[in-house]
Design a protein that fits this description.
The protein has helices at residues 2-9, 11-23, 32-66, 73-92, 97-119, 134-138. It has 147 residues and is mainly alpha-helical. It has a domain at 45-138. α1 (2-9) packs across α2, α3 (32-66) runs antiparallel to α4 and α3 (32-66) crosses α5. The model has no long low-confidence stretch (mean pLDDT 93).
Length: 147
């Protein structure tokens, strides 16, 4: 019962206790219910972070393409940073690579919303369907130009 109370009152101490119990193979002492929940949450957070970074990247690519007169080093920096962060996430968790293909279309909607909000351009200015492939989006050399 001590472990469960620790989980509610001092999460970091609880994690350290769980690590110690795992290391010493004291399986019967583990707080398995909360441990399972935390591991599941970690997986969800990785996927959520990947979606968020991809949405920001797509939003900035749209801004770069459709509001070219306002291009800035800040936008370029954001594009670069998001690509690097996505690359690092995929390096740490390669199993997430197929997930990108799965959510690319949905995440475009988030990027589109960001571009509309930050440019104040009408929705009709932007393509309904993502004009970039996933490979282009992640390619450090790719920057879209106005058609």
């Amino acid at each position: 019962m001590y472990t469960y109370n620790l989980y509610k009152t001092d999460f970091y101490a609880w994690t350290q206790e769980q690590v110690s119990l795992l290391t010493t193979q004291q399986w019967d002492q583990l707080d398995t219910i909360n441990l399972i929940e935390e591991i599941e949450t970690l997986g969800r957070k990785e996927r959520q972070e990947l979606r968020n970074r991809l949405a920001i990247l797509l939003g900035h690519l749209l801004k770069w393409q459709f509001q070219s007169e306002k291009r800035s080093n800040s936008w370029l920096s954001t594009i670069r940073e998001q690509r690097i962060q996505i690359k690092l996430l995929l390096s740490d968790s390669p199993i997430l690579k197929p997930y990108l293909d799965e959510v690319f279309v949905t995440v475009y909607e988030l990027g589109l919303a960001l571009a509309i909000r930050e440019t104040e351009l009408g929705e009709q200015v932007f393509p309904e369907i993502c004009p970039y492939t996933l490979d282009q989006t992640l390619n450090p050399e790719f920057l879209p130009e106005l058609n």
